[in-house]
Structure of VCBS repeat-containing protein:
Amino acid sequence: MSSEITTMDTAAIIEITTNENSEQINLDENEIITISNVSDPEINSIHESIGSAINDASIIRIDPDKKLTKHIIACLIFAVYTFIVMAIAIIIVCLTYPKQILYPLENNANPTAVAVADFNHDNYSDIAVVNYGSNNIYIFLGSINGIFSLVTIYSTGIGSNPHGITIGDFNNDHILDIIAVTAGTNEVILAQGYGNGTFGNETSYTTGYNFNPYAVAVGYFNGDNWLDIAIAIYQGDHIEILLKTC
């Protein structure tokens, strides 16, 4: 015996084939249930043999709205997940982004260059700043939390207008010294370090009248293990090399 049941909501046709002499769907006797759906292209026809007896024939309604509901739930879950990930990323950036700290100098200091090194052997970087307008050098000592303290101000002379600075051990005593060039007085100034963040015993060298030295660097130019000095001469359009021999 064969019967058809049509559900108008889903346009599905369910055909149940049973033993003609039995009112019970008994799959031990090879009854077959066929489901055809003409409205959903994803389901054409399903033929399935069921391996247990069903006393009361039941019709399962296939609701196409369930599929849409699952998609909506999936989209909502994805949106919530994306929001959480973005919120966490923003929090991490806010907590780790470098914070700006300002260290004021005197009025019209006009800083032109900085140099960084460990001046007092505490394994924290310190800063030396040359100020073109106020004719001096500021020494800031660093600490474990990244905070710097102004400890010393060294004058380079009235009208000296220091413009460049660098750091190095110029007398091979394993203590860092400072080299600065002054555009106003056309000099190279060497200040010897004492290992505690302070400097003194300054020595100056003249570069030439109105040369305006603007930048300075050091290196071992002739391989004698004594630091030598290279100076950029702004007005003279050349560089000047000072070789240290002892």
Notes: Residues 45 and 71 are 24 Å apart (CA to CA). Helices lie at 64-96.
